Amino acid sequence: MITISILGSTGSIGCATLDIVRRHPDRFRVLALSSGRNEDLIVGQAEEFRPDMVSVAPDIYPAVRKRLSGKGIRVLSGEEGACEVAAHPDCSVLLSAIVGEAGLGPTWEGILPGRVIALANKETLVVGGQAVIDRVREKGARLMPVDSEHSAIHQAMRGHPWEKVRRVILTASGGPLFGRSKDDVSMVTVTEALNHPTWKMGPKITIDSATLMNKGLEVIEARWLFDIDPEKIEVVVHRQSIIHSMVEFIDGSFLAQMGAPDMRGPISYAITGEDRLPLDVPTLNFPVLRQLTFDEPDHEVFPSIGYALRALKQGGQSAIWLNAANEAAVQAFLEERISFPDIARIQEVLLTDAPLEPPRTLSEIRDSSRKARKTAEERIDRIARTPVAAGATGS
Ligand code: MG
């Protein structure tokens, strides 16, 4: 029996995970759930899966507590509650799927001896970097990637030593704005940027997919997850999202992992510790597919992958600052305060400002990130207040 706790249970990854659990009740027991503000959904999940505890956003805490009273479920709130969910002593698998940097603290607390950390929250590694890897090693936990690209690489690498690898190729869907020109993206609306061709995901990651920052964050994630030289990581646009990533070995042989774009595949592989469960994921009909296509990412229109590589090269707090810039800018874009190209502008400015002393502890990481966030907000305010705002200068 796999005992599982889920951080971010009401998001798309959390719901897909509970769908797997629902279909395999003999394999899993849900111990603890943490969620944000979706009151009806978290109450429904708690009633269905009967965890020992749930943690919710402070503003819905009184209502959720009332609705779950007398059901033997402890209700907690805020980051403290999420940390308690993460640290549930009987948990063998912690699925970390909170969106953004908010996932770092609870995931950190959940890195405990002998357990599997199924990591869907890429910011944990983007921001935490070496400090997270050190903690995983120290505690004797095991990281399993949930991101489809990293899961693909993990699967391709089974039985192969890393010194036999020539390069790793991360595939990118290209996002909703693939093929657009520089002029064209300056006019992009929130609705257009949220319209992803293949993956159904939350708004933050969908915008990251439109800017290609999602792939940039994945490059950084891969660097830490696999302890690989960033120069060996390449990105190729593959519109169909059938090949989830590939590894090229020194003998010129490639191993690619394929499947329909459905996150339940990589999730179940991660939470079972590399087992394969029967899932009703659609199969691939190759004669219908007919062809798979590959393109170079357009780094001029979508510079974020380049910024991620630069962050790795610069080191220090660069990735923390780049990530904070991105989180603040994506939020401002979703609120229609800045234009689409402004997101990349904010990323670049913060990357230039990032301090180069490496952070060593969780609290140093968080201090750095708070400072970066504040700097990003100031920059955004300046852009948002400028009347010629938002893309009109075209630089
Ligand atoms: Mg991915």
What does this structure look like?
The chain is α/β, with parallel strands linked by helices and 395 residues long. The chain has 2 domains: 2-146, NAD(P)-binding Rossmann-like Domain (Rossmann fold, 3-Layer(aba) Sandwich), CATH 3.40.50; 151-261 and 288-392, RNA polymerase sigma factor, region 2, helix turn helix motif (Rna Polymerase Sigma Factor, Chain: A). Helix content is 46%, strand content 15%. It has helices at 12-23, 39-49, 61-67, 78-86, 104-110, 123-139, 148-156, 182-186, 190-193, 203-211, 213-225, 264-271, 286-289, 304-314, 318-334, 340-353, 362-385, and strands at 2-7, 28-34, 53-56, 74-77, 93-96, 116-119, 142-145, 165-172, 233-237, 243-249, 254-258. The strands form 2 sheets. A 7-stranded parallel beta sheet has the order 4-3-2-1-5-6-7, with helices on both faces. It has a 4-stranded mixed beta sheet with strand order 9-8-10-11, with helices on one face. The longest helix is centred in the C-terminal third of the chain and has 24 residues, at 362-385. The chain is globular and about 60 Å long. It starts with a strand and ends in a 10-residue tail after the last helix. The model is unreliable at 389-395 (pLDDT under 50).
Helicity level: 40-55%
**N-to-C series of helices and strands:** EHEHEHEHEHEHEHEHHHHEEEHHHHHH
Give the number of helices. Answer: 17
- Overall structural domain count: 2
CATH-defined architecture of the largest domain: Orthogonal Bundle
* Main sheet properties: 7 strands, parallel
The named CATH superfamily of the largest domain? RNA polymerase sigma factor, region 2, helix turn helix motif
For the record, give the distance between the C-alpha atoms at the N and C termini, rounded to a whole number: 56 Å
What is the average of the pLDDT values?
95
Q: Strand order within the widest sheet?
A: 4-3-2-1-5-6-7
Give the CATH topology of the largest domain: Rna Polymerase Sigma Factor, Chain: A
CATH class of the largest domain: Mainly Alpha
